[in-house]
Amino acid sequence: MNQDMTKGSPLKLILLFTLPLVIGNILQQMYQMADTYIVSQTLGVNAFAAVGSTHSINVLVLGLAIGLTSGLSVITAQRFGKKDEKAIRENLAASVIIAGAVSVVLTVLAVSFRRNILEFMNTPHELIGFASDYLTMMFIGLSGIVLFNLVSNLLRAIGNTKAPLVFLAIASVLNVVLDLAFILVFDMGVAGAGLATVIAQFISGLIGLVYIKRSVPLFRIHKEDWSAGFKQIKEHSAIAFPMGFQTSLIAIGMIVVSMTLNTLGPEAVAATTAAQKIDSLATKPLMAIGVTMATYTAQNYGADKLDRVWEGVQKVLKVTTIYSVVVGAILIFFGQYFALLFVGPENTEILEMTRLYFITNSAFYVLLSSLIVHRYTLQGLGKSTAPTLAGLFELFGRVGAVLLLSKSLGFVGVGLSNPIAWVGALFPLLGSYYALKRQLTGGKTIRPFRKLANVIK
């Protein structure tokens, strides 16, 4: 069912829209945790650490593709807000063309250079074989992952969050079942875990296409829409590629972090892998609200209801601040016990490292929540410059912190790289947001960001 977010209470709409996304994100994280749990319990700590060591590479490649589909869905949401059905169909045609072409190019490049990237990252010798096998399967099936995310993001753009949740639930169950089959029955090792993920998402993506054909007449492309879609590729790329590029910038910083972790040994890699699984689960609601803000903002921007955008941002920031403080405190005090899901109690060094990770990250969730809300709001407004600049600031902050602090503080220095990166990213985001708000409403920019806002404007 489509949802018009241009009418009604902003906070109520945002929270109701976010709820299925939160459930979906948690469900996705749970099956990813089940994925790594199966690997750790059946294949050992090295296999578990190897899968974790591929995280930054996956974000670099898959994040580019998935971020691109998010950018394409922003345009769909804007045109849905305008109630322009013809433009929506043309947007869908352009989205399919761009996503298909990117999938082919990324698949070829990623499969060809996966081993080279792992070697460049100084992946420990005992992990590199596992990591290469896992990435091979993930990248071969990249088109299935893109299909799943494109279908889901386009449906969310028109306010439909329930169908993508069902597709994700199907993918989750399939992924766990296939994990067990490929690893335990067919003895495929970590390659089986990667193959299970891409097959599950591909099947769910196909189910999504069938759903669209039968239940979403708004997305039924006519012959003439394809011609218009080709003509609009440049316009769509101007928004979609920067959003994908922003994710890749973050991933480059994560790769530098992974390279540093690799020099600290398999224990540091395993600790970070376990901590990041829990950290990711904790921040999923924040990411869900971010996705909601992009759709909410885009629809209201298309409907020329900017007052609702500013009101929504103000109210959501209060909610995310409270959430960040509460969840951050829980992880600081109890996070290392959650890590026992992945590592045994005998691995005291790894558990101590996870405790340090939570202290250096979870205490700063408030910064992350503000970053997410403002970044996605600007993206919903079709503004790509400031979010891209924020990605660069985040990259430089993370890389600089890792290279400098890891030498003096070791693992703690690596952990501090995230909040330092968040601080760096907030400056261009807040400056751009308040500059844009002042420009569109005639209001005043808050004093700390006045000069920066004028520059970005």
Automatic annotation (TrEMBL):
Spans traversing the lipid bilayer: 57-80, 92-114, 134-151, 163-186, 192-212, 239-261, 322-344, 356-374, 420-436
This protein's record includes keyword Transferase: no
Compartment(s) of residence: Cell membrane
Primary location: membrane
A GO biological-process term: monoatomic ion transport
Any one GO molecular function term: xenobiotic transmembrane transporter activity
InterPro entries: MATE_fam, MATE_MdtK, MdtK-like
Keyword tags: Antiport, Cell membrane, Ion transport, Membrane, Transmembrane, Transmembrane helix, Transport
One GO CC term on file: plasma membrane
Membrane topology: Multi-pass membrane protein
Function: Multidrug efflux pump.
Family of this protein: Belongs to the multi antimicrobial extrusion (MATE) (TC 2.A.66.1) family.
Protein name per the record: Probable multidrug resistance protein NorM
Gene designation per UniProt: dinF
